[in-house]
Design brief:
Blueprint (H helix, E strand, L loop, with lengths): L14 H4 L6 E5 L2 E4 L4 E4 L2 H4 L8 H13 L11 H13 L4 E7 L2 H18 L7 E5 L8 H6 L16 E4 L13 H15 L3 E6 L2 E2 L5 E2 L2 H14 L2 E5 L23 E4 L11 E6 H9 L14 H16 L2 H21 L4 E7 L2 E9 L4 E2 L2 H13 L2 E2 L1 E3 L2 E4 L7 H15 L6
Parallel strand pairs: 3-16, 5-6, 5-7, 7-10, 10-11
Antiparallel strand pairs: 1-2, 2-3, 4-12, 8-9, 11-12, 13-14, 14-15, 14-18, 17-18
Helix pairs in contact: 3-10, 4-10, 7-8, 11-13
Length: 433
């Protein structure tokens, strides 16, 4: 089969499948996007879970235009720029307690990579060079580059790319909707405790998403989150919470950690940090860690050309203004509760729906081909469900467990009801038993 003349190579995409009916998005407003054939879709994916403030926000566009007239580019290598400094200060005011320094990146994967480099170097600065292990979850997703790919448990053809995962431990995911035969939440917690009981002195960090996104939206149990924090403190390891997908209002709080009063040592962010307008990520660091580096005269020889780009930071500052002015975290709670109630009703009456997980406007509908065992839906059937939603003008995000909903936080009640109505029709007829 000869290669197509289509010039663009899409990430995370089967091109043969995509080219059967390619969709090019050309416009968007609020929660709606429009393709090049004039078809309108309710974007229940929120772009790639990042368009917090909706498409076409004039406040954010105006902030970018104004910054263009002042300084379009500025490196943070040995120089500062005003938007980056203002953003770091503003984030430090809003982050969970104890996180008061911010390292800017240009993506979520880079933020994760930064956090894990800091964790391992911090152990050496503490005089513990053997503390090199990093533990993550087998269903976790943290990005596709560097250490972020190594700690991503989701299979992304790691072996094909020669990813060796040296000093990486993948732990069972505590998922209450896991198929029968996979580790239960109690068994997953026991595996975490066993790691620290046997190799606690070697663990540099534990990293997880407080609510797993790419895995299909999986809530980590409260007990697991609390115990992870206790164990890392008891054994001198660092806790890294990946809020790339959950941060900036998505779950109904500015940061998901706030739901549990969870205080990590490092926290990563991206996606909604500037509503997807420009590439930007960040790693927040505790005062204790930063002070150790400062007192020992250690520099972080790590960074990117576009990290802290002033245009991206100006967009982030404007996004924070919109999040506050419109109380979008509060809107995520209200709209999420409305949509969740409908989805729970659908799940109760649909045998092929194993259940619904998530908080706010980060919801996952878990599908099964066998209600007795909660066996996961087959990939081809899952993609068929996604297509049926698209045929009805709604974009949902495919996942190994079913599909995820991450609409813009400005979604209306009517749009929530439309998603639920289509879900009821699609799931009542399309998912094979």
């Amino acid at each position: 089969m000869s290669a197509p003349t289509y010039p663009l190579w899409h990430p995370m995409t089967s091109l043969p499948v995509y080219l059967e009916d390619p969709v090019t998005i050309v416009g968007g407003e609020g929660s709606t996007v429009v393709d090049d054939r004039g078809r309108r879709y309710l974007s229940a994916t929120g772009g790639l879970w990042n368009v917090a403030c909706g498409y076409g926000r004039p406040e954010i566009a105006a902030a970018i235009r104004a910054q263009l007239d002042e300084l379009a580019y500025g490196t943070l290598f040995r120089f500062g720029n005003e938007p980056a400094l203002r953003l770091a200060a503003r984030l430090a005011e809003r982050l969970p307690a104890g996180l008061d320094h911010v390292f800017l990146t240009s993506s979520g994967a880079a933020a994760v990579d930064t956090a894990l480099r800091i964790a391992r170097r911090t152990a050496r600065l503490r005089g513990e060079p053997d503390r090199t292990l990093i533990a993550s979850l087998k269903d976790g997703y943290h990005g596709t580059s560097g250490l972020a790919l190594e700690v991503t448990g989701e299979d992304l053809d790691h072996a094909e790319y020669g990813v060796e995962r040296r000093d990486i431990v993948l732990l069972p995911t505590p998922n209450v909707l896991a198929p029968v035969g996979e580790p239960t939440p109690d068994q997953a917690l026991a595996a975490l405790e066993e790691l620290f009981a046997t190799r606690g002195a070697q663990v540099a960090a534990v990293i997880f998403e407080p609510i797993l996104g790419s895995a299909g939206v999986v809530d980590l149990p409260d007990a697991y989150l609390r115990r992870a924090r206790e164990l890392t403190r008891e054994h001198g390891a660092l806790l890294v919470v990946d809020e790339v997908a959950t941060g900036f209002g998505r779950t109904g709080r500015l940061f998901a950690c706030e739901h549990w009063d969870l205080q990590p040592d490092l926290l990563t962010m991206s996606k909604q940090i500037n509503s997807g307008y420009l590439p930007l990520g960040a790693t927040a660091v505790s005062h204790e860690i930063f002070s150790l580096w400062w007192e020992q005269g250690a520099s972080l020889f790590h960074g990117e050309t576009q990290a802290g780009n002033p245009l991206a930071c100006a967009a982030a500052l404007a996004t924070l203004d919109v999040l506050d002015a419109d109380d979008l975290p509060g809107r995520a709670r209200v709209a999420g509760d409305r949509l969740r109630a409908r989805l729970d009703e659908i799940a109760a009456g649909t045998p092929t729906v194993a259940g619904v997980q998530g908080r706010g406007l980060m919801l996952g509908v878990h599908l099964t081909r066998d209600p007795a065992t909660r066996a996961r839906i087959l990939p081809e059937d899952m993609l068929g469900v996604v297509r049926l939603f698209a045929d009805e003008g709604i974009l949902v995000h495919p996942a190994p467990t079913g599909f995820g909903l991450f609409p813009p936080l400005v979604i209306t009640d009517e749009e929530c009801d439309r998603i639920a109505d289509v879900a009821e029709a699609v799931l009542g007829s399309a998912v094979p038993a």
